[in-house]
User: What shape does this take?
Amino acid sequence: MARMIIVGGGIGGLAAAVAVARRGHHAVVLERSADFAEIGAGIQLAPNGLHALDRLGLGEAVRDCAVHIDELRFMDGVSGEHVTSMPLTGEYRRRFGSPYVVVHRGELYRLLLDACRRSGAVELRAASQVTGYRQDDASATALLADGTGVTGDAVIGADGIRSAIRGQLVGDGEPRVVGITVYRTVVPMERVPEELRWNAVTWWAGPGRHFVHYAIAGGRYLNLAPSIENGVTEAFAGVPVAAPEVHSAFAGLGDTARRLLALGEDWKSWSLVDRDPVDRWTDGRVALLGDAAHPMLHYAAQGACQALEDAVLLGDLLDDPADTIGERFEKYAAERRDHTARITLAARASTRLWHPAGPEARARNAMLSAMSATQLHDHVAWMHSAPESGARGVRP
Assistant: This one.
């Protein structure tokens, strides 16, 4: 039985702890905050994420509390034209073996945290800030800010985009600020006009900006998330912003999009950041997971799904007695690295779809509206499909 030290108590870290425990190992989760808690609003889970949650024993519970989405709806944010929709019922669910759902981030987090607390093999330690690691031939130690350390057979760095473990292992400095600001808020659904309560993840695409909204928390709230290319160069997170500033930034959108934005109160803003894909995720008995390994923009809606796939594969590979822990970690990185890099780059490139103006926007609309449902499903199959035979990351 291995003792795994997991740095970071977010969704990826808790998923790794559940995966380790379900394979008969022991996990110690070190969280820098005073409590284990998750902030944020909506999170989208494509079938590949739900299949990973099935492997963790949580798929049914997530499906029960989630909103099962009927379609991904693409709108021209200036004209208000409904360009196309990708249906997510019927053939989509048959093809990918699961629905496409949205949940409140806190709901998913609570399910993972409860699973850890129910397990006799997971130890949760809050107020444990990790600054780095050391290792030898027999063990690895997470080094704490208070000068102590926590030792086990291996260290998994799941401590986010500013990971201290990645800082030592990769050493690639600060995240990349991409020049886009996203604003977020949630609105009680009773305040949303009935004719706008679509069971869809909806994109309103406009010049240099777009606006996404969908229901969360069992349909009790509408999650609003508009983004704008404004050339921001500084990283910031969760900064309150007045509603008129948001309205001004998206004044060029059409009437319906602006009606929805006008419902928002208590807006907060984030500058979007990511990192370039790297080849090195492991160092002997140390490995990276989730945003520490492959931070990506949220535009592909795959960040959480990819962290869940990471966690399940790591749990699986711990069962291979023929390899050392270092060799198992190298196999994990080899299976996950190219796929997550492809998603990272696709998420960056997506603004070319959301943000054009004039003739380019009209050409985009014509291209999308000409695609059949099957063609749209083909376009996302490489992301939304559950990995088969270990080829993409999660073994059957």
